[in-house]
Amino acid sequence: MVRVKRNSGHVVGDDVVVAGEVLKQMPRKTELRRRDARGGIHLVAANLDVLGIVVAPDPPSGFIDRAIVAARVAALQPFLVVNKCDLAETADLLGKVKNTYTGSVPIFPVSAAHKSGLEEVQHFLGVGHRGAFVGTTGVGKSSLLNVLCPEIGLKVGALSDYKGLGRHTTTVSTLHALSGGGELVDTPGFRDFGLVEISEEDLAIFFPGFEEHDGISCRFRNCRHRSEPGCAVAEQVNQGIIHAERYATYLEILTEVEKEQAEFRSKGWKNQ
């Protein structure tokens, strides 16, 4: 056994070569990172190929879209897991998720508490995928992992009194092999999923629902879908193909990304 220092730079999923007490990190194929509410950037895991976005009733605004974009930019295939489908209030969320994301990403309705719907998730992961579940605290990521990989016995915390959010029950990321094939990384719960190093062009390309329809594309390759002439997205909004609510959500996130990019460029100029 080789002890890995906390500040070694190694993360869960890294491929390494062991030479005595030294670990040599091999090149990473993919990296999953997130930005926290304070602006700090955290590397969550390496060498994943899929990302399971777990949601339950009352997800934070824009969380699903941010996670999907982050996954796609990181070259990961996103999929949605709607947990707590045994609760009546989840039906409304599931309906909205299906209406919004069917055709963009795979969707799995499950109940970790009742152990229902997990067979489809197991089959999806069992073809050899290595993935992670991300989601705000309290959506049941640890409960899902306990069902999919029961030998790990992760602690499951009760909901706190603060807005019904769960307590953080996982503090470090860990990699687990699934009995039916595939691997899952358990990541600490967090209430945000900030986009990391996402450009306006990335958002325009990867925002769910803006995929090309019937071969129709924007006039300009770098179209940001705001006010450019010949924008296919704007035309589809006018025609009702893309709902105005989805377009409003996109513009809200685009404004955030533009602000972030402007701040980054400003800091770069000040440091010159």
Largest sheet: 6 strands, mixed
Point out poorly predicted stretches: 157-170
Range of helix content: 25-40%
- In total, the number of domains comes to 2
Ends apart, CA distance between termini: 45 Å
Fold and architecture overview:
Belongs to the TRAFAC class YlqF/YawG GTPase family. RsgA subfamily. Monomer. Associates with 30S ribosomal subunit, binds 16S rRNA. The chain has 272 residues and is α/β, with parallel strands linked by helices. It folds into two domains: 159 residues, 3-Layer(aba) Sandwich (Rossmann fold); 71 residues, Ribonucleotide Reductase Protein R1, domain 1. 29% of the residues lie in helices and 17% in strands. The strands form three sheets. It has a six-stranded mixed sheet, sandwiched between helices. Strand 5, helix 1 and strand 6 form a beta-alpha-beta unit. 32% of the residues are buried.
List keywords for this structure.
GTP-binding; alpha/beta; Ribosome_biogen_GTPase_RsgA; Rossmann fold; 2 domains; 10 strands; RNA-binding; single chain; 7 helices; zinc
How do you describe this structure in short?
By secondary structure, the protein is α/β, with parallel strands linked by helices. Helix content is 29%, strand content 17%.
